[in-house]
Amino acid sequence: MPVQAVAQNAQRQSVTTTLKSLCCDYPAGGGVLHELLQNADDAGAQTVKFYLDLNSYPIEPLISTEGDCELQGYQGPALLAYNNVIFTENDFKNLSSLGKSFKLNDETTTGGFGRGFNTVYNWTDSPAIVSREFLLILDPHERWSRGGPRYDFVASSKEPEMINHLKAFQAFMKKSDEALDGTIIRIPLRTATQAASSEISNRETMVSEVQDVLQKFATEFGKSGLLFMKNIDYITIGSTDGDNFELSVVDAEDVRA
Q1: Which of 25, 66, 86, 128 is 20 to 30 A from 137 (CA-CA)?
Q2: Phi then psi for 104, rounded to 5 degrees?
């Protein structure tokens, strides 16, 4: 008879522990915007828009009745990042592979949505993504889901709970019953309550902090910063309070030639 193990003591690390470590390696600040920008550029996007949405959105009903209390906390102020390229199946798969990147094998896709994307956890415990017909809500603490449920929002566009979730994307998404030809990443700002129980970061994300980061990014990046991008030639930065910036490269192809 083959020798049988009496127990299994495999070494594993929780998702939240990994994310906490990644956030230490990639601290908050302008680096978060740069990572999102680089990801979009790698995907071939020409346009990127950042928008600090200070509004709060309906908190009931939401998608999961069991997790309504948890999900309600993410319906407040958030940073939205839009680009005009869709999220591929590889991009969705890559989000499930922390620390890995399909970009190693395919530099023509949004493969950078691995480590770089995860810098957003400096500011949030639950980022969400809308692209094509999908809504993905990441839940690394698994407090209301198995970690990252993806929904077909077009098929569910008439459902009240889906309507309430999609309202939080309306700065860049005007129709909730049609697939989106682009990608929106929503980063709900971590509240004091969430910070108190978070296994990723115990820091509350203040609106003023993100406002300061956006303003500095607009000033420091400027028009010359776009010259280091392979594809992006237009960026807008805006917020509910009216602070708006536009960065563009005139005749970008000639300038980069």
Answers
A1: 25
A2: -60, -30
Which CATH number does the domain 15-256 belong to among 3.30.565, 1.10.3820, 1.10.1660, 3.30.1490?
A: 3.30.565
Q: What is the DSSP string of the chain?
A: -----S--------HHHHHHHHHHHS-SSHHHHHHHHHHHHHHT-SEEEEEEE------SS-S-STTHHHHHTTSS-EEEEEESSPPPHHHHHHHTSTT--GGGT-TTSSTTTTTTGGGGGGT-S--EEEEETEEEE--TT-SSSSS--EEETTTTTTSHHHHHHHHTTTTT---SSS-EEEEEEEEEPPPHHHHHH-SS------HHHHHHHHHHHHHHHHHHHGGG-SS--EEEEEETTS--EEEE-TTHHHHH-
Chain segment 153-171, per-residue pLDDT in tens? 999 999 999 999 999 999 9
- Domain ranges within the chain, ordered by starting residue: 15-256
Encode pLDDT of 184-229 as tens digits.
999 999 999 999 999 999 999 999 999 999 999 988 877 667 778 8
